[in-house]
Amino acid sequence: MKKNYKILLAIAILCLIAGLGFLAMDSAAVSGPFFVLFFLFLALAIRGHSFLKGFSYTVLIFAAVTLAMYYPSYFQELGGFQFKSLIVPLLQIIMFGMGTAMSLKDFMGVVKMPKGVLVGLICQFTIMPILGFGIATMFAFPPEIAAGIVLVGSSPSGLASNVMAYLAKANLALSVTLTAVSTLLAPLMTPLLMELFAGEFVPIDFWGMMLSIVKIVILPVAVGLLFNHFFHGKAKWLDKAMPIVSMAGIAFIIVIITAAGRDSLLSIGIFLVVAAIIHNMAGYFLGYWGCRMLKMKEQDCRTIALEVGMQNAGLASGIALEMGKVATIGLAPAIFGPWMNISGSSLATWWREKSPFTSKEETEKQNT
Fold first, then answer.
1. What is the mean pLDDT of each run of 10 residues along the chain (368 residues)?
2. What are residue 311's DSSP bridge partners?
3. CA pair distance 198, 147, nearest whole angstrom
4. How is 80-121 classified by DSSP, letter by letter?
5. Parallel, antiparallel, or unpaired for β 77-78 and 81-82?
6. Which of 319, 335, 348, 363 is positioned for an S-S bond with 167, CB 3.0–4.6 A?
7. Rounded distance, CA 84 to CA 260, Å?
8. Helix axes 114-124, 262-293, angle to 10 degrees
């Protein structure tokens, strides 16, 4: 780590100590800025570390969430304008960006890799909603919080899983196809799974949820696909801008939801974090070993594990807003999203150091 980054790390540690000190003296209001500065300086500091720099964005999310927890009123409304009304438009922009990064060829993987796609989709839409229901019941969360956990589990995988698959030396083509197909199936599968597993927690409007997903996901992705088809390579500025816009949009959505559900987070936040960790890690484990039991290639096992474990938390947030429950049902997506980025990055980095061709058969196939 370079000297400048070490200085930033030292400043971050001093801010953390100051924040904890004021907290110990019952001066919680004064401690807030120091905790925010801690995360900001830490995000800058780890940019100088080759292994940790990938977590810089996630640390910035923590800074934003801390800011929202201490000063929620600033992220709820301004001059009568409700910030939560920005969630759906931001998601539509993010989904449009997803569409511009895809093409119709991505859907052809269904024909080229039928077994991998079928197994991946079955794992995606069975393991995670069942886990979500089991964990929500085990922790005895309030009904709307429990429904939010099931909602995360019932959502399709997101683009982040494609990045992790690339880093993990997994089957990137299969990852992209699974993301594309699961997103296409979301208007049907997500409301169906919510009605099946979350119906006892909150009333589910099947058709209303289906239309919401079409509006939030399918239409923007379709427009993005058309844009990519007709203007591929002609708008390079957009290709560079969309990842930045998407990251900023996701961060702002998480901040808005955190501010709206601050009181609930203060009472159950730690339990929701534990639930997120269990849900996510179990998804990786069951996705990976389920594929190993079916004697699938190591690359495909890694891919499906990441696709199963990493859900589209942004979509879940948008659905929560459409249900009028962003401060309760929307809390689980706000917590699960950052954690999935941390765990996914860590798992992908660990796998990257291990050759995916572990057996003689797979090595021979790779060499032929």
1. 83 95 87 94 87 81 90 89 90 86 74 89 95 95 95 90 87 89 94 94 94 92 86 74 82 88 86 94 96 93 95 91 91 89 86 68 49
2. 157
3. 5
4. TEEGGGGHHHHHHHHHHHHHHT--GGGGGHHHHSHHHHHHHH
5. antiparallel
6. 348
7. 8
8. 140
